[in-house]
């Protein structure tokens, strides 16, 4: 038997083993999930008391992790849904919905009748049709003691224009899971990976599903070529070339009775739709050049208007049989899919003595400089539009400026992380008043130019 035949045989064996494990986990977890269904039903009865949509201005949401944060496709708003919080004694799981207005720097709590059950570590994807839709799949509900888990396999859509929730029922979809990843690709939602965990057993997935936004049907994809091993919490992003990038993630396996070993992955793959073959997909492993992120999991991911993928933070766990130690990060990396290269993001330092000179300026000099600065930014905006730069075509960046698409890590491995944007003395009129950058003129062409100028003044980007 040739090398190719051995690989195919090994792949079929792995699939059979995974199927047996999934059946075993499903059987053992069914009992504990039945116990949690009663608690979920109780919370749903409380939600049933909501009969009309109410919008209440509020302070920022309570602390939470494993929530979803999505950018509205038509407005300068971010949509926060779900999540969980552990106060040291009890686990709280949410299904509340908040909207953050970027321009006004305000939060609003929106209560909508018939919401999805409480959950965390789900995935949410925004698409523009119908005035904007937020699609939510899967996730988990944890018991108050944090020892039992119920994994959802339901699909919901929030119609943003009418503020209504709708459960979309379709057979043939993924099994219940959390920590998976989902992106919008053309008229499809593509879902990859995740895990299912019970008290005693767990299983990680590497399967791929597609949901059609036209026919509202699921289909399981069978890409050719060697693909990623089972994992959760990975980077998943659509590239400018139309492929889907997968990077990193986390998984664990049992090495002996009651002893598990976690793996933080650092490999990278592209999932491509084969030309001329409708419904045919192919995996390709890639090895980007440049300065790659150090080994980690639990990072947050966003896509910038220039289509670069931004990776921030995360944790590197060192596991022993009786202990677990983690090193947390607050560094930033860019992935340029066009050049297939990683870059490290670094904050630029203010020039030495600059602050001292600014204090000596007169009010008249400051006004003159601001006028010159605005003209310079307007010129940058004109050049960007002539070159059809993404900066001039995208929605404004804020809170923080790159978080136009936010991804959370599922399971117990991390949360949405926000990097505070440092104040920029050089842009006195346009520097952020809060940790979320907020610019005068934002939402206009001049605002886009200011956004670009602020970004370039703060970060050494790969194109500097």
Automatic annotation (TrEMBL):
Going by the entry's taxonomy, the superkingdom of the source organism is recorded as Eukaryota
Name the record gives this protein: Kelch domain-containing protein 4 isoform X3
Q: Top-down, what is the taxonomic lineage of the species of origin?
A: Eukaryota, Metazoa, Chordata, Craniata, Vertebrata
Q: Which gene encodes it?
A: Klhdc4
């Amino acid at each position: 038997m040739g090398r190719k035949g051995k690989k195919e045989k090994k792949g079929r064996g792995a699939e059979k083993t995974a199927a047996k494990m999934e059946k075993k986990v499903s059987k053992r977890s069914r009992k504990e999930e039945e116990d949690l269904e009663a608690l979920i039903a109780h919370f749903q009865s409380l939600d049933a008391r909501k009969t009309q949509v109410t919008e209440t201005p509020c302070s920022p949401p309570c602390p939470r992790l494993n929530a979803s944060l999505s950018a509205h496709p038509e407005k300068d708003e971010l949509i926060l849904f779900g999540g969980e919080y552990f106060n040291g004694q009890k686990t709280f799981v949410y299904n509340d919905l908040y909207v953050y207005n970027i321009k006004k720097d305000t939060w609003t709590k929106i209560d909508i009748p018939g919401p999805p059950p409480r959950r965390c570590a789900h995935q949410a994807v925004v698409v523009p049709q119908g005035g904007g839709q937020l699609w939510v799949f899967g996730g988990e509900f944890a018991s108050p003691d944090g020892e039992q888990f119920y994994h959802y396999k339901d699909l919901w859509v929030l119609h943003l224009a009418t503020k209504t929730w709708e459960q979309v029922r379709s057979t043939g979809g993924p099994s219940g899971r959390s920590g998976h990843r989902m992106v919008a690709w053309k008229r499809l939602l593509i879902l990859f990976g995740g895990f299912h965990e019970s008290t005693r057993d767990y299983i990680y997935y590497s399967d791929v599903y597609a949901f059609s936004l036209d026919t509202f049907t699921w289909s399981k994809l069978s890409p050719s070529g060697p693909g990623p091993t089972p994992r959760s919490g990975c980077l998943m992003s659509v590239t400018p070339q139309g492929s889907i990038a997968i990077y990193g993630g986390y998984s664990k396996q049992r090495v002996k009775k009651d002893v598990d070993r976690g793996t933080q992955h650092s490999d990278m793959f592209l999932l491509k739709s084969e030309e001329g073959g409708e419904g045919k997909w192919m995996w390709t492993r890639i090895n980007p050049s440049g300065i790659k992120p150090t080994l980690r999991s639990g990072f947050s991911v966003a896509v910038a208007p220039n289509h670069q993928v931004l990776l921030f933070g995360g944790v590197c766990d060192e596991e022993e049989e009786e202990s677990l130690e983690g090193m947390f990060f607050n560094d930033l990396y860019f992935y340029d899919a066009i050049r297939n290269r990683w870059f490290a993001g670094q904050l630029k330092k203010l020039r030495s003595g600059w602050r001292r000179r600014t204090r000596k300026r007169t009010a008249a000099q400051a006004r003159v400089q601001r006028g010159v600065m605005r003209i310079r930014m307007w010129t940058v905006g004109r050049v960007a539009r002539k070159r059809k730069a993404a900066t001039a075509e995208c929605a404004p960046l804020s809170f923080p400026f790159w978080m136009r698409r936010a991804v959370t890590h599922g399971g117990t491995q991390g949360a949405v992380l926000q990097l505070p944007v440092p104040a920029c003395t050089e842009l006195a009129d346009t520097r952020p008043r809060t940790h979320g950058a907020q610019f005068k003129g934002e939402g206009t062409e001049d605002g886009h130019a200011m956004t670009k100028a602020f970004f370039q003044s703060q970060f050494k980007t790969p194109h500097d």
